[in-house]
Design a protein that fits this description.
CATH superfamily of the largest domain: Glucose permease domain IIB
Strand content: 35-45%
Number of helices: 3
Largest sheet: 4 strands, antiparallel
Protein name: Glucose PTS transporter subunit EIIB
Mean pLDDT: 78
CATH architecture of the largest domain: 2-Layer Sandwich
Keywords: Kinase, Phosphotransferase system, Sugar transport, Transferase, Transport
EC number: 2.7.1.-
Number of strands: 7
Oligomer: single chain
Strand order of the largest sheet: 4-5-7-6
GO molecular function: transferase activity
CATH class of the largest domain: Alpha Beta
CATH topology of the largest domain: Gyrase A, domain 2
Enzyme class: transferase
Order of helices and strands: EEEHEEHEEH
Radius of gyration: 19 Å
Number of domains: 2
Shape: elongated
Low-confidence stretches: 22-27
Structural class: alpha+beta
């Protein structure tokens, strides 16, 4: 069996193994694409849960909507928002003014907003 390391434009390394039956590939030395997708889904769910908790829980959120790289939230009580918890959950920045919170999360804002709504 011959193994070939292939680097994609995003820096991920794929290992292709050539056998007499053809080639098969796996990502990061043995993980299948399906296993990787499941792991990423679990990580995203954990991040969504951590953000939801840091916003004071589902009962504290009046409205949440994604806006390009941010989660725009209206909360019942701004004092329940844990800015350090949001940053620990992966937020790049937090802006809090009264009952309005903007959480900078990057391009995954749409996905996170959907995951948070599913958890509420």
């Amino acid at each position: 069996m011959r193994r070939h390391a292939i680097r994609c434009q995003h820096g991920s390394v794929f290992v292709a193994a050539s056998t007499s039956r053809g080639a098969r590939s796996s990502r990061r030395g043995g993980r299948t694409a399906a296993a990787e997708a499941r792991r990423e889904h679990v990580v995203a769910q954990d991040k969504a849960q951590a953000i939801l908790s840091a916003l004071g829980g589902g009962d504290n959120i009046v409205e949440i909507e994604p806006c390009i790289t941010r989660l725009r939230c209206e909360v019942e009580d701004g004092s329940k928002v844990d800015e350090a918890g949001l940053k620990a959950a992966g937020a790049h920045g937090v802006m809090l003014q009264g009952e309005v919170v903007q959480v900078v999360v990057g391009p995954e804002a749409d996905t996170l907003a959907g995951d948070i709504e599913d958890l509420m």
